[in-house]
Design goal:
The complex is a heterodimer of chains A (about 110) and B (about 240). By secondary structure, chain A is mostly helical. Chain A has one domain (about 20-105). Chain A is about 70% helix and about 0% strand. Chain A has helices at about 1-15, 25-45, 50-70, 80-105. The radius of gyration of chain A is 23 Å and the shape is flat. Chain B has about 240 residues and is mainly alpha-helical. Chain B contains 7 helices and 2 strands. Chain B has a two-stranded antiparallel sheet. In chain B, strand 1 (about 150) and strand 2 form a beta hairpin. In chain B, helix 2 (about 25-60) runs parallel beside helix 7 (about 205-230) and helix 3 (about 65-70) crosses helix 6. Chain B starts with a helix and ends in a 6-residue tail after the last helix. The chains are: A mainly alpha (about 110), B mainly alpha (about 240). Chains A and B meet through helix 1, helix 2, helix 3 and helix 4 of A and helix 1, helix 2, helix 4 and helix 7 of B.
Chain lengths: ~110, ~240
């Protein structure tokens, strides 16, 4: 009685999800890129780029965030398509929040 | 032990005890947990989004005052804390990897290292808050601020506008720190269960979802660092 039961456990283990196991090398590489970006954004902040200072700082931050989401949060390797939908809707509604608020506050002085 | 195993499997109609009865396959079970976590994180985006929106509105309204107040922050605390958080994100990635490979001791070690890095972050944050109290830069009755708008030495900063900057600074870094404290507690519990051998390649959903949470908190800080510490440094 014991034998078939255990082999059946083995069978269920086989159809368990085949998840992506990130290699140490690529994880460390992403981590180093993230640290370099942090140094870069801190350094660039002291150079006068006019209005582009904010744009550069936020672009680097977004680049870092994308790296974290894709590689550290394994979104690049996920089989679940709904994850992408959830992320896209979060970004979309955040954009609506920020854009519509600024469409109000940013134009109040216009006459 | 073998009999116990057989009994447990009998109670589960012959399937793996790790598979809950209302799921068809373990893949479905895992994807459901993961999707639930992502929906929670989407809600967190909205939560922090409100504060980022408030920041955006007031930064636009009191542009120079925010620049002046931001320059009182110590850029090194912010930069070092960013690096500490990025290191802790790497240790979380390695913890998830250890769980996927059923390496119990490595998993526990990476989780404990993550906790240490989280506490280092909170410690540096504490030192920073202490300095803010000493400088009377904490919003409230004792708040005091003297400064001029960056690159306009003749324009005095309105202390009330600087106070709004520091209110947002404390609200945003404070809520971020609360998330860090929750994360440290979470990883403490997980490290305990990991040491007891609860997680393996067969079942490590809590490790993965706590990891997603930690990376999200990291991303919030990735945006807080330039917005709070780096604005108008060049002026």
């Amino acid at each position: 009685m014991t034998e078939p039961a255990i082999s059946q456990t083995g069978a269920t283990r086989d159809d368990s999800p085949h998840e992506h196991v990130s290699s140490i090398g690529s994880s460390v590489a992403i981590w180093i890129v993230l640290l370099i970006c942090t140094g870069l954004t801190a350094g660039v902040a002291f150079i006068d780029l006019g209005p582009f200072n904010t744009i550069v700082a936020l672009s680097i931050a977004t680049f870092k965030a994308i790296l974290v989401v894709l590689f550290f949060m394994h979104v690049k390797y996920t089989h679940e398509k709904l994850t992408g939908l959830v992320i896209a809707s979060a970004i979309f509604f955040l954009f609506i929040l920020l854009a519509l608020s600024m469409a109000d506050y940013g134009t109040r002085l216009w006459r | 032990m073998a009999t116990n195993q057989a009994t447990v499997i009998d109670q589960h109609d012959g399937h793996d005890p790790a598979l809950l009865h209302h799921f068809a396959t373990k893949e479905q079970q895992k994807n459901s947990a993961s999707l639930g976590m992502w929906v929670f994180l989407a809600q967190e985006v909205m939560f922090f989004g409100g504060m980022f929106c408030a920041y955006l509105v007031y930064r636009y309204k009191y542009f120079g005052d925010f620049g002046s107040a931001s320059q009182t922050l110590n850029i090194w605390y912010g930069a070092i804390n960013t690096a500490v958080l990025l290191c802790s994100s790497l240790t979380v990635v390695l913890a998830v990897r250890a769980a996927q490979l059923s390496k119990r001791k490595a998993l526990t070690a990476w989780l404990l290292l993550t906790i240490v890095l989280g506490l280092v972050f909170l410690g540096i944050k504490g030192i920073e808050y202490k300095e803010k109290f000493e400088d009377h830069h904490v919003p409230g009755p004792s708040f005091a601020y003297h400064g001029t708008v960056p690159s306009h030495p003749d324009i005095q900063v309105d202390p009330h506008h600087a106070e709004i900057y520091f209110s947002l600074y404390f609200a945003m870094t404070g809520m971020h720190a609360v998330h860090m404290i929750i994360g440290v507690g979470l990883f403490g519990t997980l490290a305990f269960w990991a040491w007891r051998g609860k997680y393996s390649a067969n079942y490590y959903t809590p490790i993965e979802n706590a990891g997603l949470y930690w990376h999200f908190v990291d991303i919030v800080w990735i945006y807080l660092f330039p917005l709070l510490y780096l604005i108008d440094r060049h002026r």
